[in-house]
Specification:
Order of helices and strands: EEEEEEEEEHEEEHHEHHEEHEHEEEEEE
Largest sheet: 7 strands, mixed
Shape: globular
Structural class: alpha/beta
CATH superfamily of one domain: Metallo-dependent phosphatases
Number of strands: 22
CATH topology of one domain: Purple Acid Phosphatase, chain A, domain 2
CATH architecture of one domain: 4-Layer Sandwich
Distance between the termini: 13 Å
Helix content: 10-25%
CATH class of one domain: Alpha Beta
Mean pLDDT: 77
Strand order of the largest sheet: 14-15-16-17-19-18-20
């Protein structure tokens, strides 16, 4: 296995523009009716998205989108070229925000096939809008020895990160150029600053406050690539945090901030991967979102991927990332790695939020190093990606390349020391990976 770095650090790439595809209004998949003529792109009815979720079934994709609650089910259409494909729809109501988070599941898809689509919706007053996107389904089995993908993390949703986030989003949105033909995007955690808060209206009459708007779906620049590239995430500490003021007397009037606030409930609504445990139904009531069970795996071309959760933390400010030797997530990971130990796919890639090695040297990573890393080494993992620390760093230990990709937009972290890694740089960045059989360029 060979890994090559094309530069001393990950850099922002200059990519060419990508044209949107406007589709004809028939057929409608999953509906017997026919929508009205397609409306202009976008519109105030759409508040987030769309974004694409893949759950390790090459014949299926989930399209997520959030609208105002004035969009009824009978006025929600997905338009695509023939032949018709089965689709199911459901939505979750953000009651205090006046929004609906939709999930449209398309099935019967062919392997390794480009699939353009349009979402056409209207409110009860017949105000019709349209948003376009596309995706390419993964190859079935290991029939494609090449794979390209982006990875970055720690975008958060603070005002300081907005400009940087836009820059990255604009360049990622052009990933379908001839030079950089990406298959998907990996996010190493901390999409938002206080992701545990359900969207709400201030004083129930003001504008909606929603931490998820900036970093994922509310920016036009982000939608340009989230509507086309499946996105794979791992939960970070800020993705389920509600902040320090959850217990203020006025909080029940402003947001969802009760005992379930830091359970990962809101994150799970936005990223309902099939393998995530601790829930009854991703589109129905969630009894308990168990942070310790937020893990999943998927295959794509020549690589196996494993998303692992390193939370809950034993102390929010202690920089301690517990990974007990008997934890369910370690047992799950060993089962998954053992199942593909002799598989013909040459690459095993693991990603989670808290890095085993960093350039801070003040964090306590003893449990990760003692309990997780030996497992990764035993089963021949090739690459580990993390975030949390807001800079770029890398270190190679016993044949495994570890990357810290935390420069996605949050305020940059100081580099406290260089002894903990092979290289570190305080800079905004993302990484682009090119895999061809047993060779990888980063």
């Amino acid at each position: 296995m060979k890994l090559r770095f094309i530069a001393a650090t990950c850099v922002l790439l200059c990519l060419s523009a990508l044209a949107l595809i406007i589709l004809s209004p028939s057929p409608v998949i999953g509906d017997d009716g026919t929508p009205p003529p397609l409306a202009p792109q976008g519109g105030d009815l759409i508040t987030k998205g769309p974004w694409i979720i893949y759950s390790d079934d090459p014949g299926r994709m989930d399209i997520m989108i959030e609208t105002l609650d004035s969009v009824p089910d009978i006025n929600f259409f997905i338009v695509a070229p023939p032949p018709p494909y089965p689709v199911t729809r459901s939505y979750h109501e953000w009651g205090w925000a006046g929004r609906r988070l939709w999930r449209a599941t398309v099935t019967g898809l062919e392997h390794n096939t480009w699939f353009p689509y349009s979402i056409v919706i209207s409110d009860e007053d017949d105000n019709w809008v349209q948003v376009d996107g596309s995706f390419t389904t993964p190859p079935g089995g290991w029939v494609k020895p090449t794979l390209n993908f982006f990875a970055y993390g720690d975008t958060r949703s603070t005002t300081d990160s907005l400009d940087q986030l836009k820059n990255i989003a604009e360049e990622l949105s052009m990933s379908r150029s001839d030079q950089y033909d990406a298959d998907f995007v990996i996010h190493t955690g901390d999409f938002v600053f206080e992701g545990g808060r359900v969207p709400f209206k201030q004083y129930l009459v003001g504008p909606v406050t929603d931490n998820w708007n900036y970093a994922l779906l509310g920016l036009d620049e982000m939608v340009q690539f989230t509507s086309k590239l499946p996105i794979f995430t791992t939960i970070g500490n800020h993705d389920f945090s509600c902040g320090d003021d959850c217990n203020k007397w006025y909080e029940p009037f402003f947001s969802y901030c009760d005992d379930d606030c830091e359970s990962g409930y809101v994150y799970l609504r936005h990223f309902p991967y099939d393998n995530y445990d601790g829930r009854v139904d991703p589109d129905g009531p969630i009894i308990q979102a168990d942070l310790d069970k937020f893990y999943y795996s998927f295959d794509w071309g020549p690589a196996h991927f494993f998303s692992l959760n390193t939370y809950p933390m034993d102390s929010y400010c202690a920089h301690s990332y517990p990974m007990d030797a008997d934890s369910g997530k370690l047992k799950w990971l060993e089962t998954e790695l053992k199942a593909v130990e002799h598989d013909k796919r040459p690459w095993k890639i693991v990603f989670f939020h808290a890095p085993p090695y960093d350039a801070d040297c003040s964090c306590n990573q003893a449990q990760i190093r003692d309990n997780l890393i030996p497992l990764l080494e035993r089963y021949g993992v090739d690459l580990v990606m993390s975030g949390h620390e807001h800079y770029y760093a890398r270190k190679k230990v016993n044949g495994i390349q570890y990357l810290v990709l935390g420069g996605g937009g949050a305020s940059l972290s100081p580099i406290g020391c260089t002894g903990g890694v092979d290289f570190a740089r305080k800079d905004y960045h993302y990484a682009f990976f090119e895999i061809s059989e047993d060779y990888m360029n980063i």
